[in-house]
Amino acid sequence: MMKCLKNYKKLSVFVIIGMFLTITSIFICKTVPVYAAQTTAQEEDESTDEEKNEKSDSGININGNLGDLGISITTNNDDDDANNGLSTTLRILILLTVISLAPSILIMVTSFMRILIVFHFVRGALGLQTTPPNQVLIGLALFITFFVMEPVFAQVNNNAIKPLEANEITYEEAIDLGMEPIREFMFGQIRNEKDLTLFCNLAGIETVNTLDDIPTYVLIPSFIISELRIAFYMGFIIYIPFLIIDMVVSATLMSMGMMMLPPTTISTPFKILLFIVVDGWSLVIEQLVMTFY
Predict the structure, then answer these.
(1) H helix or E strand, kind and range, residue 70
(2) Cα 159 from Cα 153, distance rounded (Å)
(3) 251 Cβ contact list (under 8 Å, min separation 6)
(4) Is 214:197 a contact under the CB 8 Å cutoff?
(5) What string of H, E and C letters represents the secondary structure of 72-121?
(6) What pLDDT does residue 100 have?
């Protein structure tokens, strides 16, 4: 028993000495690099002050390769931004805004809205709830919109985008030049001047001598209301022949005493047959496109 106690005491003494040496060595190792890092950091700060000033004046160019992909990043100084009219941050903000609003712009200032509404009227007149599906109608309306708007997009490309890429005009001038063909298209599609008069009165614009006096924020809602009106006119005309079929089928079933049979069950095949016989899709699309010219 006494031997065990002696051995335990010796072991505890060795453990205490080892812990003391370990703590001392760790403290020494930590303190020495700190001062070295501080001195080197100070030296680096002093040596790179001139380089930072030069970079801030002349911009930064970063070139590198990521596999087969080459990367080049260039930041211009304030003088270049001032010459181009907009700072780089503002350009990125404008680009992100245009990208986020692109679907709304496509719907509201082009022929897309009228075309899509007419297609939905056609599907409703046929009595079909999900055929053709919405994806098909939207895709067809989108491509017909590109077809109708191609002359307008070509003018925007020639008058605004190409000169901007060649650094011949500023961003503000490109926006103004790009809006001119779109404004001409919207003015040409407004069939009722009451729409323009309504929003001019709401905006407090009393006198309008030329179309250039009407701002774009007044033109766009006027164009939207006009498109809705024209689309509903066309939808009413499309509904008439199919409504006649529904009335004939309903009267026939009533005269035969088949009151429990829904008329739509019998009239839907006849409406589809009529639509196929007259080549309905070609007729509707042809007349719909002709309304824009």
Answers:
(1) strand 69-75
(2) 10
(3) none
(4) no
(5) EEEECCHHHHHHHCCCHHHHHHHHHHHHHHHHHHHHHCCCHHHHHHHHHH
(6) 80
Handedness of CA 152, 158, 159, 160 (dihedral sign): positive
β-bridge partners, 62: 73
Quote the percentage of the chain above a pLDDT of 70. Answer: 70
Tens digit of each residue's pLDDT (9 = 90 or more) over 189-205: 888 888 888 888 888 88
- Please give the helix or strand (H or E) that residue 237 lies within, else none: helix 216-255
Question: How far is 76 from 59, CA to CA, in rounded Å?
Answer: 5
Beta bridge partners of residue 72, listed in sequence order: 63
Report, as an integer, the average pLDDT of 204-222: 84
> Using CA atoms, how far apart are residues 218 and 199, in angstroms rounded to an integer?
6
The residues near 168 (Cβ < 8 Å, ≥ 6 apart) are none
d(CA 263, CA 266): 5
Phi and psi based region of residue 173 (left: phi greater than 0; alpha: psi -120 to 50; beta: remaining): alpha
Instruction: Determine the average pLDDT of the residues in 133-159.
Output: 90
Q: Is the peptide bond before 132 cis (omega within 30 degrees of 0)?
A: yes
Two structure tokens written together for 106: 């496509």
**pLDDT value at 207 more than 50:** yes
pLDDT category, 58, cuts 50, 70, 90? Answer: very low
CB 239 within 8 A of CB 121: yes
